[in-house]
Structures are given as C-alpha cells and as structure tokens.
Amino acid sequence: MLRRSIGIGLALFLNSGASAASPALSENEAADFVSRFCSTLIPAVADYDPNAAGNWPPDDPAVFGPLVTPELKTTIEKALAGNAGFEAETGGKGRLGDGVPWKAYQDAALDCRAGEISGTADHPEVEIHYRYYDDPDEGWTDTLILTQNDGEWRIDDILYGNPNFGSLKSVLATSVDEQTP
Questions:
Q1: Rounded Cα gap, residues 105 and 128, in angstroms
Q2: Is 119 left (phi over 0), alpha (psi -120 to 50) or beta?
Q3: Which helix (H) or strand (E) holds 116?
C-alpha cells in the first residue's frame, strides 16, 4: 500500500509540475532582460538619434546580436542586406527603411518596463509595457518570446501589441519576400 501511495503522490507531483505555467525565467531575470533590451535597442530609452548620420546602433549586429538567437540574428542581417539592396536599386525606402522594428510602434517610447511572464519554461513570453514619449499616460504592450542559447536568455521573436502587425519574424519574412525577385 505504501508503494502505491508513493507512486500516486509522485505521479500527482510530476503531473502538476508538467502542466503548471511557472516559467524558469524569474521576475528579476525578466526585468533585467527587458531593461537591457530597452537600454540597448529602444531609441528614446537608449538615447540614440535615429536621424543621425551613419548606422543606427540598434541595427548593428554587434549591438543586437547578444540579445537575439543566432537564427533571428541571421534573419535580421539577411533582411537588412536585402533592404539596403532594394533601396540602392530603387532609390526608395524599403520596409526596413526606418530600421529593425524592435517595437510595434515606431513612435518614441518614453520608457519600457517588464510585465507579466507567461509561456513555457523553455519559451517564456515577457510583456513589455511602453509609454509614448509625447503622451506618457498612453502606451502599448509588446511581448518578447525568449529561449535559452548558450545558457543565456535570448529573443526568438517579438509579438507586437497590435495583432494586425504580427511579429518581428513575420515583418522580416515579408521584407525578404518583397525583395526577392
């Protein structure tokens, strides 16, 4: 009888752990990652001037590379190269003419803060709450989808707060498709 009780208890413990939505990413880790993301890639927060001459730092692989998965880095580089070729060929502005869309709205964000954590232990989803620079009482929420890479959390995709916008990966794929003859 004792074996059966232990077996049932172990089965209940394992079953409850498998179905629980407790991500392996802690709230502190999520807040730290979002802070790093925002201070590196969000212009007003990072104090970059997207209208300055030269490369905008958030579009430099050396800048965004440590924050994203190797696969996403490759996709971004391919999309940016294709966009540069498209702009050189047409003299017009490509889909990525304003840079990598790290957030749903290209309006300047006054700040961004970590919100709820959901998803799974392997792919936690962390909300980012933005406030508009020119209207701090208003804002939106995007969601970072993270995954472990070499023991560190990295962005695998960004779900935009406006469902009509899709995700970073979908924008990059569309950009590449539009530039492919």
A1: 13
A2: left
A3: strand 109-119
* Biggest distance spanned by C-alpha atoms of the chain: 79
Is residue 128's pLDDT more than 50? yes
Non-local (6+) Cβ contacts of 75 within 8 A are 169, 172, 173, 176
Q: Could you tell me the pTM of the whole model? A: 0.79
Which amino acid belongs to residue 95? R
34 vs 17: CA distance, rounded Å: 27
Q: Which residue has the tokens 């950009």?
A: 175
- Here the tokens at position 120 are 């799974």
Report how far apart, in Å, the C-alpha atoms of 121 and of each of 39, 66, 108 are: 25, 21, 32
- pLDDT tens digits along 143-162: 999 999 988 999 999 999 98
**Alpha carbon of 176 to those of 40, 42, 44, 77, 123: distances in Å?**
25, 23, 28, 10, 25
Are 82 and 176 in contact by the 8 Å Cβ rule? The answer is: yes
Given a contact cutoff of 8 angstroms between Cβ atoms, the answer to whether 99 and 84 are in contact is no
Q: Which of 1-15, 93-107, 138-152 has the lowest mean pLDDT?
A: 1-15
Q: What is the DSSP letter of 51?
A: T
The amino acid occupying position 52 is A
Count of residues for the chain?
181
